[in-house]
Amino acid sequence: MAIRTAPAATEATAPPTAVPRRARRWPARVVLARTVIGLLLAGYAVVSLYPFLWMVSAAFKTQQEVIAGGHLVPRDPTLSTLVDTWNRLHFFDYFVNSLKVTGATTIGVVVIYSAASYAFAALHFPGRRALYRLFVALLFVPGVVTLLPVVLLENRLAILGTHLGLVLPFVNGTAPFAVLLLTNAFRAVPSELRDSARVDGAGELRIFTRVYLPLARPALVTIALLTAIPTWNEYLLTRVSLNDPATYTLPIALQALKSSQVVQYNSLMAGALIVVIPVIILFLAAQRYFVNGLTGAIKG
């Protein structure tokens, strides 16, 4: 009986050697276009940042060094300009006034227009679309057009020259953009979540506060920032409305530094730096929410 021998095991085939990928080469026109765009953006960044850097530099210089010019970095940096400006500006008093106006305006905008936007996004009532379109159309109305009517109305209401007379127009002026952004953010919330909450016995107020508001947090932070920063820096209506120095906000107080015949540029830049520092800190602290809020609003 012939014994069959098992066939010899074939040698394991070696894995194919990986072919090195060629370096991706961009067409010359793409490289040229990107280079030009990069140079233009770099130039725009320099033009935009230079005034701010000059302001920071001048705040640490003496008056003579600012007038002499010729260099951006202070040769002998000094804090005496900031200290002197702090004392002359009475920063804390005006800071409290600005904080009161900005805080009240921001809270009013977030509370009022988040509720209104929830109604536009989730509820059904007669005239909803027409009213929403009216809010959006107000975006195209310049604020300066309503300045005189606002002043005359506040004079009749006896609130002209008070902080309340600033808060009400600021809250009203933010309405179009706040409603537009928050309505889109609330529309992005799945309707199934609202239906599930209703099945669990939740009312509209609970659905609004427990479901919609947490999910729209980036949009709320964005609206808060876009309200707080312009309100903090507002000059026109504040200058027209306020007459009592005790009620002045920081932008109006800066004007006191220009009252002398010879403008102290270092003191003026130091005051501007003091005013702008809280805004920069606020924006950097909430930058992540700000970007996410704008992205969600655009997608919505």
How far is the first residue's CA from the last residue's CA?
83 Å
CATH class of the largest domain: Mainly Alpha
Ranges with pLDDT <50 over ≥5 residues? Answer: none
Main beta-sheet strand count, sense and barrel state: none
CATH architecture descriptor name of the largest domain: Orthogonal Bundle
Number of strands: 0
- DSSP summary: helix tally: 15
Question: What is the subunit organization of this protein?
Answer: single chain
Under CATH, the homologous superfamily of the largest domain reads MetI-like
The structural class is mainly alpha
Looking at this protein, list some descriptive labels.
mainly alpha; MetI-like fold; 15 helices
Topology:
Blueprint: H1 28-59, H2 63-68, H3 80-89, H4 91-122, H5 128-137, H6 147-157, H7 164-173, H8 175-187, H9 191-199, H10 204-215, H11 217-233, H12 236-241, H13 250-254, H14 265-285, H15 287-299
Helix pairs in contact: 1-14, 3-14, 4-7, 4-8, 4-11, 5-8, 8-15, 11-14, 11-15
Keywords: Cell membrane, Membrane, Transmembrane, Transmembrane helix, Transport
Family: Belongs to the binding-protein-dependent transport system permease family.
Subcellular location: Cell membrane
